[in-house]
Amino acid sequence: MIILGIETTCDETGAAILQMKNGRITILSNVVASSAPLQAKYGGVIPEQAAREQIRSIIPVIDAAISNFKFQISNLNAIAVSQGPGLIGSLLVGVETAKTLSLIWKKPLIPVNHLIGHFYANWIERESSVKSQESSEKKSRLSTLATSHLPQFPCLGLLVSGGHTDLVLFTNHGKYKYLGGTRDDAAGECFDKCARLLGLPYPGGPEISKLAEKGKDIYKLPRPMINDGWDFSFSGLKTAVASTFKESKPTLKVECNLAASIEAAIVDVLVIKTIRAAQKYKVEQIIVAGGVAANEKLVRKLKVQSEKLKVKLHNPPPNLCTDNAAMIAAAAFFQKPIADPLKLQADPNLSLAS
After folding, report:
1. Structure pTM?
2. Residue 234: which of 242, 243, 225 has the closest Cα?
3. Domain check: are 268 and 308 in the same one?
């Protein structure tokens, strides 16, 4: 089965072609056009501007995904698109384009919750395919081995991105229990806002991490809600950072140490709550997803703590952590198409809790 995925929830415009064969999901083509450099000039995403850039990019990006693979539309089995959540203007670009192509090409249309899509980046094989010259017996062994390294149910999912920080208990494809999420600032949003306080460019997460490498965790910043349920709150941490920075002499050393302290505080909350949830629900696997899943310190600490519990940790490669169409297509392999493509509506408020 082959699916074309389309992703336009924020400032990225993505199109990808994925194939599922013998239980293995592989990327045949994956193209992303981002307006992040443009948004960086303003310190964040301007919704209307992002949508205008996506209108310009959507057809060239889809065309590039098809051309890169020298793909024949007749071989396509379905089209998948992010239905939400996200910026309404951006979502409309992807959803309306997907609906149009579905009708013109006469292909089924599969709407995907963008947040669920992030988790399915963990179901994509790291290697695009088994070399054609290998024997069929070796291919079979490699396919079985690859499938066994995919996430297994039940598993605990941690989603960490610019707008979302959620814990989800998955029992099967399409079956999950929402445990908790952010009450105010998400982890990625906190990184970005703290970076702005320090005068760092957007996106702030990677910039904080770069500075943190040269600093030490010496500031006693709060770990909000670290022992309270499964919800998250990072607005108090942001306020504490603003107060600490205001009271400190602005030097490079201060900025590096404060960056290290910010990163340590956010990572501690994410790791401790995730590990506690894994213990309570007795899962043997944890899957991490979202842009902040590319944070090396978060992955290292989660790996150390999960190994102590003998729990297997799954996390996508950095290029599949941020928004991309490959994850949307991957999720679509486990979902059913909508009966009437014309009835699909973009939903900026789509959530995991509903």
Report:
1. 0.91
2. 225
3. yes
